[in-house]
Amino acid sequence: MANIRKLPPELVNQIAAGEVIARPASVVKELVENALDAGAGRVDVVIEDGGAKLISVTDDGAGMAADDLSLAFTPHATSKITTTDDLFNIDTLGFRGEALASIGSISHAHIRTRKPDETGGYEITSSGDTTEQPRPCAAAGGTTVTIRDLFFNTPARRKFMRKANTEFGHISEQVTRLALPQSQVAFSLSHNGRTKFDLPAVNSTAVRVKDLFGSSMAETLLPISSRPGPVQVNGLIGQPSAGRGSGKWQYFFLNGRFIRDRILTHALREAYRGLIDSNRWPVAFVFIELDPAEVDVNVHPTKVEVRFRDSQAVHGQLLAALRETLNKSALTPAAQIESPSQFAPASEDHGQTQRRESLTEALADFFKSAAPAQSKLHFPPPSIPAAAPAAAGEKIYAGEPVETIAAAPASYSSQAVAPAQQAQTAVEPAPQIPTGRSAVQMHNSYIVSAEDEGIMIVDQHALHERIIYNQLAQRLTAGGLASQRLLIPETVTVSEIESDTIAENEAFFTRMGIEVAPFGPQTVAIQRFPSLLTNRGVSAGEFLREMLDELSQGPISPEIMLEKTLSVMACKAAVKAGEKLTQAEIDNLLAQRDQVEKGSACPHGRPTTLMLTLKDLEKQFKRT
Ligand code: ADP
Ligand code: MG
Questions:
Q1: Residue nearest to atom 16 of ligand 1 (CA)
Q2: Which residues pair with 232 in a beta bridge?
Q3: Distance CA 576, CA 585 (A)
Q4: Cα 96 to ligand 1 centre (Å)
Q5: Verdict on whether the full-model pTM lies above 0.90
Q6: Backbone φ/ψ region at 286: left (φ over 0), alpha (ψ -120 to 50), beta
Q7: Is residue 124 within 8 Å of 73, Cβ to Cβ?
């Protein structure tokens, strides 16, 4: 056993490469970062066969002198930091000095470079464990790094490479992330001889976004900009009505570096809550500037995650900037976005939402005229088939939502046939609604209620979300979520990594009432889905997409995963801001509030209720 040996340097480099170089896109990232660090005004990226055959990055930056070039492939050789202090004041994209050494150890690499103010250039090759001495050559000002046969000597890694188009997709996404904060740098990207994009240098983020994503997206964007402070936030965000089906169009940058950070995504979700349909994601390009000493970027090998010294300040400043723009731009909340009469169906999803809502309204009208609205609150008899259509009139159920799968048809018929309805009333009394309470809905979003101690204002979405969250948590403790088999399984296109993720989390999904099975190449089918969500018209496919996006953001603890899932479920199943409620639904929501009396904050910590006490009122009106 006791036979400790020092690893040969080429093996050390290969191990380091495993951390930084997961796939061709990682190579592209490192090389483009080096080009940007060298002050390039133009970066051209050429790819063949998804990067397996060729990756070439050319810049017109500072270039390298011969003795620098001879060190370029040496591990921990960098021109960017010299002291520990530098490590906490990083203003370059790279700093570890291990990228080129790593890449050189697992490919046939070549660099040709010339400093712009010198006449001759130099080239150097590195291949596996051998690096040659630099040789003089003719070269344009700047640097071209060419990587051929990536992973040629690490067959395990090579096996992990996906189809050329998949790898190129990752490369394109990487270049996009690098090009967005650097609009003053021209970028081009091509694959197998075809140009994917060719972006001029412009000095305007808005123009860069338009050049990358097209003018139809760019037109929906609103500028954000924070008040002055140690944390500066600028950027562009999508109008709520232009939400997307996934979070793919949310980009966050810290001091010009793309990052992923839960605190930032959380602030974004907060700001749009109630403004956007819960299965839509706002588009966002957010640029945060912060004293580099206030953040540690050295916590993740590819620097995509960071640690803020004062994350509260960052969250607050972003949220304030978002809210200011969203309030100012006079966008009426989801009321307008979702109301059938005012929103022409722009897509499949909206068509569906509309149909659901018109049905909801039609049923609501029927009940209003036909019978005391209260009868809507009852559970259906258990004999109703579980797969009954989801067009339930009820948005808020008196009981546990899972039991009310067939609530609409049941109460519909019980309404029509008076005796049956009466019988039901006798068996299933409605929850106690405190007497003397009169409540009305306002702006289809808030419920205002007279209470003994004053006037209460409830955010209907936030409160309902909280209630459902609690119910889901209770059900889970009691075993699992009830689900129903989908009559028509919903198919979802997934990447190979995502299909692995599904397989790894199978037990978790099952407990959540979700059954997903393979269904042909790159496709899975959702066979079972929680009744609660189906009833509220939530698309199983979109839900799974959202979960996969969440899970693909890196490892998370089981607790956070559970919390996330329940939050997403509750949010999707809850009534939205902008949904009209019947009197019975209003009363019922308040009755449930009284039961779930942690109802002061929704799962994400947003308040559900405001109370204006009689004392407050007297003070405000200067009666005392
Ligand atoms: P790091 O970027 O962390 O310093 P790298 O291994 O990526 O480490 O690069 C090593 C060094 O090579 C850099 O510090 C820089 O001096 C030099 N270098 C790499 N790429 C370029 C380039 N495109 N232009 C000029 N210098 C470069
Ligand atoms: Mg580097």
A1: 79
A2: 289
A3: 13
A4: 10
A5: no
A6: beta
A7: yes
CA distances to 266, 314, 604 from 317, in Å: 13, 5, 18
Percent of the chain predicted with pLDDT > 90 = 34
Report how far residue 266's alpha carbon sits from residue 186's, in angstroms, rounded to the nearest whole number: 32
One-letter identity of residue 163? K
**pLDDT at res. 306:** 86
Residue nearest ligand 1's atom 19 by CA: 34
Taking CA atoms, 387 is separated from 76, 117, 391, 405, 583, in Å, by 62, 75, 11, 8, 28
Contacts of 339 (CB under 8 A, 6+ apart): 357, 444, 578
Q: Which of ligand 1's atoms lies nearest the C-alpha of 35?
A: 23
Strand partners, 233: 288
Cβ-in-10-Å burial (0-12, 13-18, 19+) of 391 comes to middle
Q: How far apart are CA 518 and CA 525, in angstroms?
A: 6
Contact assessment for residue 67 and residue 47, using Cβ atoms and an 8 Å cutoff: no
Rounded (5°) CA angle 105-108-114:
100
Contact 102, 13 (CB under 8 A): yes
Residue 363: per-residue pLDDT: 32
Q: What are the CA-CA distances from residue 340 to residues 346, 575, 606 (Å)?
A: 12, 15, 28
Type of residue at 443: H
Q: Which two tokens stand for residue 242?
A: 């232009």
CA distance 115 to 143: 8
C-alpha to C-alpha distances, 486 to 262, 489, 501, 516, 533, nearest whole angstrom: 33, 5, 22, 11, 12
Q: Which residue, judged by its Cα, is nearest atom 8 of ligand 1?
A: 97
Closest Cα partner for 239 from 275, 187, 278? 275
- If you measure from the C-alpha of residue 37 to the centroid of ligand 1, how many angstroms do you get, rounded to a whole number? 8
* Strands 121-127 and 108-114, sheet pairing: antiparallel
Say how many Å lie between the CA of residue 143 and the centre of ligand 2. Answer: 13
Determine the distance separating the centroid of ligand 2 and the alpha carbon of 97, expressed in angstroms. Answer: 6
Question: What spacing in Å lies between the alpha carbon of 370 and ligand 2's midpoint?
Answer: 72
Residues within 6 Å of ligand 1 by CB? 30, 34-35, 38, 59, 61-64, 68, 72, 77-80, 94-101, 143
CA–centroid distance, residue 566 to ligand 2 (Å): 40
Q: Rounded CA gap, 569 and 408, in Å? A: 21
Q: How far apart are CA 493 and CA 541, in angstroms?
A: 9
Q: Which ligand is nearest to the CA of 60?
A: 1
Helix, strand, coil share of the chain (percent; to 5): 40, 20, 35
Query: What is the number of the ligand 1 atom nearest to the C-alpha of 92?
Result: 2
- Over residues 154-180, mean pLDDT: 88
Q: How many angstroms separate the alpha carbon of residue 30 from the centre of ligand 2?
A: 5
Which ligand is the nearest neighbour of the Cα of 38? 1
Tokens of 426: 């006798």
What mean pLDDT value characterizes the chain? 77
Protein residue with least CA distance to atom 27, ligand 1: 34
- E strands present in 66-133: 108-114, 121-127, 130-131
Q: Which atom of ligand 1 is nearest to the CA of 30?
A: 7
Q: How much is the pLDDT for 393?
A: 45
CB distance 124 to 110 below 8 Å: yes
The residue whose C-alpha atom lies closest to atom 11 belonging to ligand 1 is: 78
pLDDT single digits (tens) 137-152:
999 999 999 999 999 9
